[in-house]
Design a protein that fits this description.
The structure holds 2 protein chains of 2 kinds. Chain A is mainly β. Chain A has strands spanning 4-6, 10-13, 19-25, 31-38, 42-51, 54-57, 65-70, 73-78, 87-94, 103-104, 108-112. Chain A is globular and about 40 Å long. Chain B has no helices and 11 strands. The radius of gyration of chain B is 13 Å and the shape is globular. The chains are: A mainly beta, B mainly beta. At the A-B interface, strand 5 and strand 10 of A face strand 5, strand 9 and strand 10 of B.
Chain lengths: 113, 111
């Protein structure tokens, strides 16, 4: 059974803190994605990675960075958290030959105070 | 910005009634996917449509891709409380192969 896991379901941080969100997939997928989900706005792509050490900006990369040192792990980093980054963060992965059937993790609800 | 416009944003139905959500694009889409997200859950892939005029069925769910490949719909016949959730369409935008998600339609089923 395919699986994408995220390090935390809920996280509370303070403004200015550095925040790490971790995502791990056990499907040997090449592509991994980070989205944020906000009410009424759907899912918006922050960054994606198509290989180890490779990354591409999505639609809303400002204030975020990513790291992919191993194939199975994709990290989202908030260098200095701000209140407008309070959101649900979803990680997803796909096979190399298909970007369209995305497997999502359970999500991390981040609150920045 | 969003390439696919999804309507309606919310839909309340009585259990047993039908439900339809629509996705529309100003440009031709190479393919479109549909996902379902239960309350408190994460999006789960339902189906992908690729061909012009394609119709696919999954039990009470019917998915259609328009002849011009600019619109798609998801129709649920005789809704049940288990159908509650948000339904998203997603399609590659511009020259990218990465799908952009619609804003979703939240289905509320009243018993």
């Amino acid at each position: 059974d395919v699986k994408v896991t995220q390090s935390s379901r809920y996280l509370v941080k303070r403004t200015g803190e550095k925040v790490f969100l971790e995502c791990v997939q056990d499907m040997d997928h090449e592509n991994m994605f980070w989205y944020r989900q906000d009410p009424g706005l759907g899912l918006r792509l922050i960054y994606f990675s198509y290989d180890v050490k490779m990354k591409e900006k999505g639609d809303i990369p400002e204030g975020y960075s990513v790291s992919r040192e191993k194939k199975e792990r994709f990290s989202l980093i908030l260098e200095s958290a701000s209140t407008n980054q309070t959101s649900m963060y979803l990680c997803a992965s796909t096979r190399e030959d298909s970007h369209n059937e995305q497997f999502f993790g359970p999500g991390t609800r981040l609150t920045v105070l | 910005g969003q390439q696919v416009m999804q309507i309606p944003q919310y839909q309340h139905v009585q259990e047993g009634e039908d439900f339809t959500t629509y996705c529309n694009s100003s440009t031709t889409l190479s393919n479109i996917q549909w996902y379902k997200q239960r309350p408190g859950g994460h999006p789960v892939f339902l189906i992908q449509l690729v061909k012009s005029g394609e119709v696919k069925k999954q039990k009470r769910l019917t998915f259609q891709f328009g002849e011009a490949k600019k619109n798609s719909s998801l129709h649920i016949t005789a809704t049940q409380t288990t159908d509650v959730g948000t339904y998203f369409c997603a399609a590659p935008s511009g020259g990218s192969y990465i799908p952009t998600f619609g804003r979703g339609t939240s289905l509320i089923v009243h018993p």
